Amino acid sequence: MADYWLSIPLFQNLEEEELQQVKSIFANIAVRSGTEIISEGEEGDEMFILVDGKVRITKAMLMKGMSLPLSEIKNTSKVLANLDDSSYPMFGEIALIDRDHRSATVTVVEDSEFLVTDRMKFFEFVGNHPQTGSKLLMTIGKRLTATVRRNNNELVKLTTALALALSRSTK
Q: Which residues are within 8 A (CB) of 29 and not within 5 positions of it... i.e. 6 or more apart?
């Protein structure tokens, strides 16, 4: 297997033997540009690690069933991130943990290669290798908590800006 395994953040706390064990639950897949590998709102249980290529993560600005007079907005989705393989980003870990609806859409923008695992393989591995599984879950947990903290900060900024805008419009 390629040397990039040692550079992937999810695996950086693993010993060599643990890394060899965890490789068995990941498949290597190639995906063509233009393919949506994750679609917001769909159910899913796979987690991906980008090892070569580029993806774009987008989120709908309107909740399902919501309609607003947004005639001046042509595209009702927001680009959250453009990611490349330089940091081996991971996505889909929320669905891996809770097997719920996808929170965003991930579109391949350049032919790409991924490592992918699913909930069944992952948690079977955790059950069979609890020490290594704990390390993986801790890494995923830290990533999720960092995301929650970042989103909380953004939410405070947005609600403050909205409150200021509303207070100015009523004067």
A: 113, 114, 116
